[in-house]
């Protein structure tokens, strides 16, 4: 069985204008205590949550924040505390301007075998618009350093739709990263989160917000370029060469179990979803008292579980297995979507075409509504 561990590292050198994650730029003095707390929390979770023997992690993901801001030996301390399968995937998110061969070499020797570089763009004025601090040379140097120390798998993470980014700018970014021959690429349309500097600038009419049609054009262009270069689309926002799909993310999409370690981390174990305190200070203080740092938890009922499964499965190239494709409301909706070239239904397996991926949220919501209005077949409505 797949089992994951997510470790949240909340430290950043600079907060990007679009970011609403739990990150801080003035907490570097907490790094050692934070790592101690993560190690203690791991031990407590593993001993107190599972039977004997506890599960071993098939994937580990250090996210943030900027995990690569931690001194390498501190990150390795957390990794060493995680029981792992021999072939576990271990990923670390990195900013291109916070790594070098020495740091990446420490990661590699400790068992890290996958990196994810936050590139976002290769165009200078777009990077400025996003509030990023690196440049194209940083990205090229980071990829070169990763290969030099033996990393065969890494991801380049992109964002499209920023203010001032033209279609030509986006094509330049995608074409530029393809010259680096990445085994994996993620590309996300820019979203505006409430309370961020980006949100405030848009509300003050200093800049325009993202445009849906512009983002759709950029998604299609990006997909064309990536697929032509040999990367397969295996999830709406993710492309990979064969054998390089992110196993940890696949665990999320399959509703697998995972521990969440660190502040503002989420976990899913034994049918219960839970999350930790948002601030690093409160997380550290709670763990140091010997208490679990949970801020809340929930158990999803069968309906919400099925709805979430459908939502996640339809984002992937595998698609969703429907139990009721012939119920009147669902069948009528599927017929409309098929005629429009948005979905493919093979027996009971439903997948989205590329045009359908652009409308994934709307299609999923309509299917949920149609299913709710249909008599229950007595089984599970959707699954992987």
Short summary of the structure?
This protein is α/β, with parallel strands linked by helices. It is 40% helix and 22% strand.
Number of helical elements: 14
What is the H-and-E element order?
A: EHEHEHEHHEHEHHEEHEEEHEHEHEEHHE
In terms of DSSP E residues, the strand content is: 15-25%
Helix vs. strand class = alpha/beta
Largest sheet: 9 strands, mixed
Q: What is Rg?
A: 21 Å
Task: Provide the low-confidence segments as ranges.
Answer: 376-384
Numbering strands along the chain, what is their spatial order in the largest sheet? 7-8-6-5-4-3-2-1-9
Kindly report how far apart the N and C termini lie: 15 Å
What does the average pLDDT come to? 93
Shape: globular
Q: How many extended strands?
A: 16
Work out the helicity level: 25-40%
Could you characterize the architecture of this molecule?
The chain contains 14 helices and 16 strands. The protein has 384 residues and is α/β, with parallel strands linked by helices. The strands form 3 sheets. Strands 7-8-6-5-4-3-2-1-9 form a 9-stranded mixed β-sheet, sandwiched between helices. Strand 10 and strand 11 (272-276) form a beta hairpin. The longest helix has 19 residues, at 31-49. The protein starts with a strand and ends with a strand. The model is unreliable at 376-384 (pLDDT under 50).
Explain the layout of strands and helices.
Layout: E1 3-9, H1 31-49, E2 57-64, H2 72-80, E3 84-94, H3 101-110, E4 114-120, H4 124-130, H5 136-148, E5 153-160, H6 167-178, E6 184-189, H7 197-203, H8 212-228, E7 232-235, E8 238-240, H9 247-253, E9 257-261, E10 266-269, E11 272-276, H10 280-288, E12 294-298, H11 302-314, E13 320-322, H12 328-339, E14 343-346, E15 349-352, H13 354-357, H14 360-372, E16 382-383
Parallel strand pairs: 1-2, 1-9, 2-3, 3-4, 4-5, 5-6
Antiparallel strand pairs: 6-8, 7-8, 10-11, 11-12, 13-15, 13-16, 14-15
